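User: what does the whole thing look like in 3D?
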Amino acid sequence: MTEITSSLPPLSERPGALGWMRRNLFSTWGNSLLTLLSAAFLVWAIGGLLAWMFSAAEWGVVLVNMRLIMVGQFPVALVWRIWVAMYFLAFLIGNTVGLRMEKTTRKGLSVGLLFSPLVFALFSFSIEARLAIAGLSLIALAGWWLGSRWPKAFRRPVLIGWIIYFPIFMLLVRGTSGKGSPMEIVGSNLWGGLLLTFMLTVVGIVFSFPLGIFLALGRRSQLPVVRWFSVGYIELVRGVPLITILFMAQLMLPLFLPQGVTIDRVIRAMVGITLFSAAYLAENVRGGLQAIPKGQFEAAHALGLSGFQSMFYIILPQALRLVIPILVGQFIALFKDTSLVAIVGLFDLLGIAKTVLAQPEFLGLQREVYAFISLIYWVLSYAMSYFSQRLEVALGVGER
Amino acid sequence: MSQSEEPIIKCVNVNKWYGNFHALKDVSMEVRKGEVIVIFGPSGSGKSTFIRCINRLEEHQKGDIIVDGIELSHDVRNIEKVRMETGMVFQQFNLFPHLTVMQNVTLAPIQVRKWDKAKAEEVAKQLLHRVGIPEQAHKFPGQLSGGQQQRVAIARALAMQPKIMLFDEPTSALDPEMIKEVLDVMIELAKSGMTMLVVTHEMGFARAVANRMFFFDKGQIVESGTPQDIFKAPREDRTKLFLSQILSH
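Assistant: Here's the predicted 3D structure for the full assembly of 649 residues, as structure tokens:
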């Protein structure tokens, strides 16, 4: 520093925590007062919660019933299949984070997320369970290291991995062969807890997505029959609450089926959720389709692309990109709406919570159990939201 | 330029209505292979509607349009054939914003002409070189200037190796300093023997390369002739008035 003018800036403009506080919290005496009042309110409001969390709450009920909350009645001897599915997922996530490393702005945060399972390993589970949980982090880190070391080599495999993940997950959960073998079929009546919630959500998303796109295109079709069918379907389903559809599927459908024909209860719930979600998705996608300028259709047609080609290569990719935030919002809503199946007697996360609380030894522990499943819902919803933000950045939404 | 055989575009008494509005009134025109036609006239005169009828972006309701021996009717196959033979450049460029420049140019050849990717990219590289932006192939349209975007749009249309190029006010949406770079490409294209129909008010372009000019007003062809005829001795008063308006400043 040779000039006098380059001395330190005034305190309020200096970087760092103190400068920030001075700028944002204590800039005027009015702001200072507001800051102090808000702080007092927060201590009063959150203090009680924290005190309950760390002293009064009996978290034992959650730890004892952890397996039930996670996988329901899934046979203990076969739970390793779910671990395999989780390890595969951990690897894919780690690998994807590694691949995108040079484009990630907050590298520390992304890698730090891979360590999050270790936090759970601190809880007082059995030693095997702790090792299994720690394994998640280990495998995620291995995937991350491979991905960031050889990004080119892993780009295609990891994409294929994500695409085949859903069928593989279904196979691992459901099984393929008869009794006694390691891949023994586990009936859906044994799925429960987070596993069931997850299954309902994933199936709902994977199947309602294409169905919704078809309905959206159908509603804009020039063929009257297709258009009226789509409009009729969308308006009919949107006019009915999800819980009604679930009741119909669980209670009324059996009355209409011939004697001896039964459809699995979980499948009925999945179909109900999928059909319901598709109607909303169709309208969201239609909004995206309508936002595409007419010139894009004209340019595509002028080049000789057929109607299908124009839609597939030009219109849909742009329309779907536009509606990513809306679609993710809808998928988060769907994830939380699956808890309605508890009302029709399935043991999803909420249903399991209710059964746990019905046991005499856990009476009166509602707060602990519901707080825990709320946390699970929040973590997964936030993960979806975060993923959608990353996806928007990756696809360059809003910067063309 | 051979100007002997069958016209490549033949329009006979073409009529079009938008509701009650009579947009095109008995428009007839014949264009021979290799000709450069400039269409001009006041806004709302039907000139854009007319060239958009030639590749069926607009549907005419009466009269015949025959392009390269194919009659435009409701037959979808005919429409697709005509569109393969005609390239179009729009006022608003209409590039595909989610695709790179290279993908914009190669999409139609790969999907419609069924070329393999390597061939399509080879052709695309040559075309981007021809329109003067070989180094932008991997950018997205949003990263280019208006003039560059319009030149990509020209390359995209040329990639289908069309026999006819339609230009719908290609320089109207451009900043003045970018008009020249687009016109230069169009002049080069005209001199290479491409059949071109150009809706434009760039009279310098018309003077330089047009074989014939058509003045549209109120959905009709008011006057046509060579650039010399039109500029030196316009017969109709409406043509004189319009020319004096656009050439006065």
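In plain terms: Chain B has a mean pLDDT of 92. The first helix of chain B runs from residue 47 to 54.
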